[in-house]
Specification:
The chain has 124 residues and is of the alpha+beta class. Helices cover 18% and strands 19% of the residues. It contains two helices and five strands, in the order βαββββα. It has a five-stranded antiparallel β-sheet, with helices on one face. A hairpin with a 4-residue loop joins strand 4 and strand 5. It is globular and about 40 Å long. It starts with 7 loop residues before the first strand and ends in an 8-residue tail after the last helix.
Length: 124
Amino acid sequence: MLSEDDGYTGVDLDKCRDVKTGQIEPWAQEIVNLAENYSEVSPSGTGICMIARGKIESTIKSDPAHVELYRSQRYLTITGDHGVDLSTFPDRTPGNKLFNNPGETSKLLGASRRLCAGVPSARF
């Protein structure tokens, strides 16, 4: 479970992956490419779940945009199913200087805000 002091942000990108082909929608791939994180296929197979180092200011949830970023008080289901070619994702090794930079979370937040722009139910 994410807590206030763990230093991580949970991300759910819903309805962005074709279960049969594994193809990820371009809008979701953009977010995955921006973030230095752990990424995997969601339990439904139709989304991407990510854990990013760094903390966002507050939870963001936009059902119409299919984007959720969680600060705390949220359980994350870990499947271990990468289900995609990991060579398309950024380097996530601990030695990578960006992996340990909480500022990278701001890129994730910015991309999510662009996606949610104009969606009345988006909460930031």
